[in-house]
Amino acid sequence: MRFDTLLVANRGEIALRILRTARRMGLRTVAVYSDADAHGPHVRAADMAVHIGPTPADQSYRNGAALIEACRRTGAQAIHPGYGFLSENAEFAQAVADAGLVFVGPSARVIALMGNKAQAKQAMQAAGVPTVPGEQGCATQEQIAAAARRIGFPVILKAAAGGGGRGMRVVREAGDLAEMFRQAQSEAAGAFGSGEIIIERAIERGRHIEVQVLCDEHGRCLHLGERDCSTQRRFQKLIEEAPSPAVDAPLREAMGQVARQACEAIGYTGVGTLEFLLDDQKRFYFMEMNTRLQVEHGVTELVTGLDLVEQQIRVAQGEALTFGQQDVRLKGHAIELRLCAEDPWAGFLPQVGTVGEWQAPAGIRTDSALASGMAISPFYDSMVAKLMAWGESREACIAQLARACERTTALGVRTNLGFLARCLRHPRFAQGQVTTDFLAQEDLQQPFWRRAPSAHALAAAALVLGGAVKTAMAGPAERLGGRSLWLRDATAGADGKAVQCTLASGAAGLVLQCSERAPGKAAAEDAQASSWQIAHLRWHDEAGGARLGLAIDGIYRELACWQEAAGRLWVQDGADAFVFERVERFEAAGARQGSGLLRAPMSGRVIAVLAGEGQSVAQGDPLVVIESMKMEMPLAAPCAGRIARLHVGEGQQLDAGQAVLEVDSEEEKETP
Description:
Blueprint: E1 5-8, H1 12-24, E2 28-34, H2 41-45, E3 48-53, H3 57-60, H4 64-74, E4 78-80, H5 90-98, E5 102-103, H6 108-115, H7 117-126, E6 134-138, H8 141-151, E7 155-159, E8 169-171, H9 177-192, E9 197-201, E10 207-215, E11 221-233, E12 236-242, H10 249-266, E13 270-278, E14 284-290, H11 297-304, H12 308-316, E15 333-340, E16 342-343, E17 349-350, E18 353-354, E19 357-359, E20 365-368, E21 375-376, E22 383-391, H13 394-406, E23 409-411, H14 417-425, H15 427-430, H16 438-441, H17 455-465, H18 469-474, E24 483-489, E25 498-506, E26 509-517, E27 528-542, E28 545-552, E29 555-565, E30 568-573, E31 576-583, E32 597-599, E33 604-609, E34 616-617, E35 622-628, E36 631-636, E37 641-646, E38 653-654, E39 659-665, H19 666-669
Parallel strand pairs: 1-2, 1-4, 2-3, 4-5
Antiparallel strand pairs: 6-9, 7-8, 7-9, 10-11, 10-13, 11-12, 12-15, 13-14, 15-22, 16-17, 18-21, 19-23, 20-22, 24-25, 24-31, 25-26, 26-27, 27-28, 28-29, 29-30, 30-31, 32-39, 33-35, 33-38, 34-37, 35-36, 37-39
Helix pairs in contact: 5-6, 13-14
Cofactor: biotin
InterPro entries: ATP-grasp (IPR011761), BC-like_N (IPR005481), Biotin_carboxylase_complex (IPR050856), Biotin_carboxylation_dom (IPR011764), Biotin_COase_C (IPR005482), Biotin_lipoyl (IPR000089), CPAse_ATP-bd (IPR005479), PreATP-grasp_dom_sf (IPR016185)
Keywords: ATP-binding, Biotin, Ligase, Nucleotide-binding
């Protein structure tokens, strides 16, 4: 069916991505939005936009009836679901077809077949596709325990109705199985509406390899090469690249042929992805099929020269592919980084807040809906942008992308930008040796991963928070009069050091003297003093932020700065963003060790309360589970004792830092 008006049933960067191609193809475009997205960039980018629901915004984009009604009101004849939300919902795809509209994707039958991991596995086995040993249909703890004994530990639990790392748990010991099963069921039910779990053998030190497929309604099925998605945290991808450094031409052909065979067996049409695990013996096993456009589709576009969204739309209109398998050529190398609002050094904790300043790097492809002043809410996934680079070789691509990270400005909300830049430069990644357990094996508190602020960043914070920028630029350094202040690196949380900074005149101009103190140390302990000569100050305000240029010991740099509020400053230091706070007096961060007050580490919704007032608990016991950005996080008892007061209930929305409960510490009850 031909159509001239396309509704995009999604938001953010993927909505903008689809709208861009649709406009180029001459289609009229329709966006949809919730209350939370009323001023979103995808609303402005479309020819028309329809309001579809209130906050919580996540549910608005899952309202299939409202989406179909939006088509009726605007004259849209087709719906592109993007990824996430309803993109793999067979009932929605069927409802679209029943309404006489075109669903840009495979049929509802195929989505239903491949959307359930248990059914998909059976279908692939029937088609001769190798699968990971495991069992389906385990609904109780007794059944899952029996299956685990037959398979052998370690095992992995997976949500049968979805993917993306949600509802997945690796279990290494029988004693952990019951709790992990409960967590997996709960997360799966919340994310996909089904708590069905399958169990498989955990293939450790494997690679996550996926094969992109493209099929039309006329019997032509092609594969477009593979992507390596092995750099993951919590089973969610962070870095994807094409082609994989572990796949040679014969293996590529073998995996591609299996993928094509699988598509032909189920009658697949459109763009899709088959995901495989590749073990250390180069044996590959089918995991799941995504019947939609992937987040990481851009790297395949960069190495093939194809626009996958265009191909989706053409297939949905009944067109035949105009090229064959022999025409698909992979050129060069492409890598994508998923920029997420999260803190990698605090367990990848999701972050919410207002973006103070955002500036994408020049010279690479950036898919993003970010803008300075935009609010990042807890209702959506933590991914806020994708940075993609292409190079003639893998080495050239890595170098280009690492440099692009240093030219990116992301202030106001903590992101994983600096962490991703370190991943690119890690020896294992550089050598192409990353497996899915890579990050789980790393100590992210080590100096390689956790960089301290540079002298330029520290000087910028001292000058701005000390109110000395204009004074220092206006005349002789003597006018500063030995100005002194205390700063804390708030980015490091409890590990943040306090620094006493003094600005004074020297023989050649302004001098910054700093004396560092670590948490828990007395004034004379662990003191490290530094002194830097500052010259050539340059301050200029820009929309959404400012730039401070300064030379320290003869090296000039310009840094982006954004002041969130009095006494708190964000500074972009290469790929890292630091938050500095001005403090009147320094108190050791560990001064309240043993405190029984548990606060919410992030904004989110309480989905489970596992203990009640008066109950005795041990340190580390899970007490409350909160959900934010589609991830569940158990909050553990801060100390052993008795729960004195519970401040929250199930279903309650929390702000970061809000009190959750209080535990009367056993240590506090001890008498001398």
